[in-house]
Amino acid sequence: MANDYVFRPEERPTFPGSPFAPALTLPRRLAYGAVGVLVGATASLGNGLVNVNVANLSGALGTYAVQATLLPAIYVAANASANLMLVKGRIQYGIPAITHGLLIAYACAGLLQLLFPGFGGAVLVRFISGMTAAGLTTLAIYYLILAFPLKLRPLALVVGIGTVQLGLPIARMIPIEMLALDHWRGLHLIEIGLALTVLAAISAVPLPPSECSRAFKPLDFLTYGLFLPAMLLLCSVLGLGRLLWWTDTPWLGAALAASVALFAAVALLEHLRSDPLFQLKWIGSYDIVRFAAVALVVRLALAEQTYGAVGLLTAGGLTNDQLHLLFAIVLVAMVLGIVTAALTISQERLRYQVMIASLIIALGAWLDTDATNVTRPPQLYLSQALIGYGTTLFVGPALVFGFLRMMQRGPNHLVSFIVLFNVTQNVGGLAGSALLGTYQVVATRAHAGALSEHLTSADPQVVARIQAGVASLSGALTDPAQQAAQGAALLGQALNREATVLAFGDVFRFVTAIALIPALYLAARLVADAIRNRRQEVRP
What we know:
By secondary structure, the protein is mainly α. About 80% of the residues lie in helices and about 0% in strands. The protein is built from 21 helices and no strands. The longest helix has about 60 residues, at about 480-540. It starts with about 25 loop residues before the first helix and ends with a helix.
């Protein structure tokens, strides 16, 4: 765009730090749309690749599998905290400086991990990846705003946040052989390539300029310095709790208590500030608490796909390479969800969209409740497609609903809203996996205990099963005592597998109930509003 172009009043930024939005030609809008979709899908792809393969990364990192599980938690903590700095950073230094800096740091951290692989480097990459993803999510929305005509620009929120959800199913479709090449250097190369690809795309199709002004206050850095370690501690507890077990590891309780103390310090500091980052009165208002609660509960239910369905298939012996078609279907369903949300969005329909999305997610989870030990991906195509469709049908309208509430208060509430929404979605997803994982472990133990009560040495079926196990081992073991012990062990393994499958059935029923909560709540609100409006109409 020419440097001497004079922007009209309606083309000025809506918020400080956002770009001007001039009228563009169709080819230029298409270019912005393509870059916006690329940026959105790439924002979460790197972390998706790590999440999908985190169990296999520990060997290459020289650490235990439990420690490797910290990597997604670090990403979530960095992502949830990043906008405390990024929003004002864009205002003060401009979008290109912040975005280019994050992408260059991401690529350099990936290069460092490529040359000197280790757990410390992986932690650094995940932290910078989380911050970069937060910046790219906003950047994708900015690009998509310019892709739509003026009247349709609110759709950029729906499409932008929807494309960010596509990273995980895309990650599930990438062959593990490509990632694990040369001790997982393939993964590091892909992450570096993603950062450089986005950097090249936004350099080739730059955003219009934005107005820069001084934004940071000294206490902003203190707030961030308290909030970030609080979030790191909380996410670490959520990520490791079900693996180390909540009541067996004392430091989990200490970490959780420390995070609560740090959050309390943040709240006290922000309450005493004259120009706070967090608008605590607004966040604590009834309307915003309801919004956050609904968004959080739905995100908890969405863990059914990332933990429940994948966990069931993994327990059945399947690997990620056998799930490519399943997640290709999920990807298509998510795209359809974005299209549906964009075509039907309006301020009056937001609650209906979120309610319908919750019901669709509940239906998908309920369809999985009859899973058995022979359930395979084809039996989950419909249910997981429904959950994928519900994911993107929900997240866009939820973002628009909160954004409209924030617009009523003004730009100084932008940081509060973005951080709040990030926490409900990112930390909520981590909490959902922790909740479902804990429930699944407890249910597995209960089912194993119930099944073992029926296994007695006097039962002919038990004896026959042990003898069948002995017969299968006769070629490898000759000692009758060892054969009998191993035969009994094989029966115990079969019992645990069956208990695990039954527990996942309980998890799916639990998710169904969780997903119904926001749907029933919103339905009750709609009925109450309709009754109140009717009474006002008939009142003289």
